[in-house]
Structures are given as structure tokens and as C-alpha cells.
């Protein structure tokens, strides 16, 4: 056995372990999943789970009648401006999630994760009257995602997992008290990718 052969095997083995560690898995059966894979909303835990295609078909229900999981849709729809000031949320980068029980929450990313507010239900209904697309949103699994920071004007209906990805971008790139020079270009790139994927 040559030293070079042993070293090559060690490098391959390390690369295989690194690739295996980086591979996402289905959170229901532990099978590896592709980079683009379905997500299910866990009604009991109020969180999104990665799923392989078979599990997404097997476990997805409508979240009612005891069904624990709901499929997260893939719709991305850019809207005309929605008046979010009337919803009483004091930040420019925020997402609104209507829930099956009739409540609506707003969440804004921060370096520590998400900040959450309850939105007045009557104010949300009025916003829906001005922007009828809001009434078509699926509770818990779709969100109104808004970015008006630095003069931008993005208003989207997106799958709720897109919002969690946006929160992760902010957490990853935020530096210091004001965010530093990397966070806002990264957020702008996130919204450019939304446009490409819609």
C-alpha cells in the first residue's frame, strides 16, 4: 500500500463525510433530499419541515380533521403596493402570516431571529379589501413579504419558507448595531432571486 494511495483514500473519505453532512434530509423519514425539495407545515409545532417527495405526498393533508402536516405551496406573486402602515407595523422589512384561527402575525428579522407582533384583524381585513390577492392566501403556509427599506417597494405573496430563508440571510449577514455593509445588499439579492423564481 503506497503512502499516496492511503492519503488519496483519506481525502476521498473526508470529502464524502463533508458532502454527507451538507446534504439535507427529510425530517420525517431521514432520506436525503435535493436542494429544491417540498416543505410541510407542522400544525402541532407551528414550524416548517423539509420533506422528500414520497413523504410530502403521504403526510400532506389540509391541517384539519387531525391532519398534522400541510403542504407549503410554491406560489410567488408580486403585488402592487400594499399599505402596511395601516397594519401598525413599524419596520420596513416584514412578513405577515394569516393563521387558520383568524389571527394575523407580523414578523420582522433581526440579528437574533424574528420579532413578532399581533396584527389587528380588522386592519388586515381592510388591507384585503384594498388588495384582494391577500384574501387568496393560504393560512399558515403563505405570507405577505414586504421590503420598503432604503426606498425599495417590494410586496410579495410567498411560501412561508421563503420568509424563514430571508430571516436566515439577515442573521447571517448582520454586523454591529446597524447591520453593517453586507446585510442590505444580501437582502436586495434575496429579492432579486424571488423575481427570478416567480
Radius of gyration, in Å, reads 20 Å
Total E-strand runs:
9
Output the strand order for the largest sheet.
Answer: 4-9-8-5-6-7
- Give the count of helical stretches: 5
First-residue to last-residue Cα separation: 54 Å
Please give the domain count: 2
Overall 3D form: globular
The structure class reads alpha+beta
Q: Bin the strand percentage.
A: 15-25%
Nearest-integer average pLDDT: 84
Ordered list of secondary-structure elements with their pairings:
Elements: H1 3-22, E1 39-42, E2 47-50, H2 53-59, E3 69-71, E4 77-78, E5 93-98, E6 104-110, E7 113-119, H3 121-130, E8 142-147, E9 154-159, H4 160-173, H5 183-197
Antiparallel strand pairs: 1-2, 1-3, 4-9, 5-6, 5-8, 6-7, 8-9
Helix pairs in contact: 4-5
Pfam families: DUF5947
Protein name: DUF5947 family protein
Organism: Streptomyces similanensis
Q: Mind explaining what this structure looks like?
A:
This protein is an alpha+beta fold and 198 residues long. The chain has 2 domains: 3-71, no CATH class; 77-197, no CATH class. It is 33% helix and 23% strand. The protein contains 5 helices and 9 strands, in the order αββαβββββαββαα. The chain has helices spanning 3-22, 53-59, 121-130, 160-173, 183-197, and strands spanning 39-42, 47-50, 69-71, 77-78, 93-98, 104-110, 113-119, 142-147, 154-159. The strands form 2 sheets. Strands 4-9-8-5-6-7 form a 6-stranded antiparallel sheet. Strands 2-1-3 form a 3-stranded antiparallel sheet, with no helix packed on it. Strand 6 (104-110) and strand 7 (113-119) form a beta hairpin. The longest helix has 20 residues, at 3-22. It is globular and about 45 Å long. The protein starts with a helix and ends with a helix. The relative contact order is 0.12. Residues 17-22 have low confidence and may be disordered.
Amino acid at each position: 500500500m503506497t503512502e499516496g494511495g492511503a492519503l488519496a483514500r483519506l481525502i476521498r473519505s473526508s470529502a464524502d463525510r463533508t458532502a454527507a453532512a451538507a446534504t439535507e434530509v427529510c425530517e420525517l423519514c431521514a432520506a436525503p433530499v435535493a436542494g429544491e425539495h417540498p416543505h410541510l407545515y407542522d400544525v402541532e409545532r407551528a414550524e416548517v419541515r423539509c420533506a422528500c417527495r414520497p413523504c410530502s405526498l403521504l403526510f400532506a393533508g389540509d391541517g384539519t380533521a387531525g391532519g398534522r402536516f400541510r403542504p407549503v405551496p410554491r406560489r410567488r406573486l408580486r403585488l402592487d403596493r400594499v399599505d402596511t402602515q395601516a397594519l401598525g407595523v413599524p419596520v420596513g422589512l416584514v412578513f405577515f402570516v394569516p393563521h387558520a384561527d383568524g389571527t394575523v402575525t407580523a414578523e420582522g428579522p433581526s440579528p437574533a431571529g424574528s420579532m413578532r407582533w399581533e396584527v389587528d384583524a380588522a386592519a388586515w381585513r381592510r388591507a384585503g379589501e384594498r388588495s384582494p390577492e391577500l384574501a387568496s392566501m393560504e393560512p399558515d403556509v403563505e405570507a405577505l413579504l414586504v421590503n420598503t427599506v432604503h426606498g425599495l417597494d417590494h410586496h410579495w405573496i410567498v411560501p412561508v419558507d421563503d420568509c424563514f430563508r430571508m430571516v436566515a440571510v439577515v442573521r447571517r449577514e448582520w454586523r454591529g448595531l446597524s447591520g453593517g455593509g453586507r446585510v442590505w445588499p444580501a437582502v436586495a439579492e434575496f429579492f432579486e432571486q424571488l423575481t427570478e423564481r416567480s
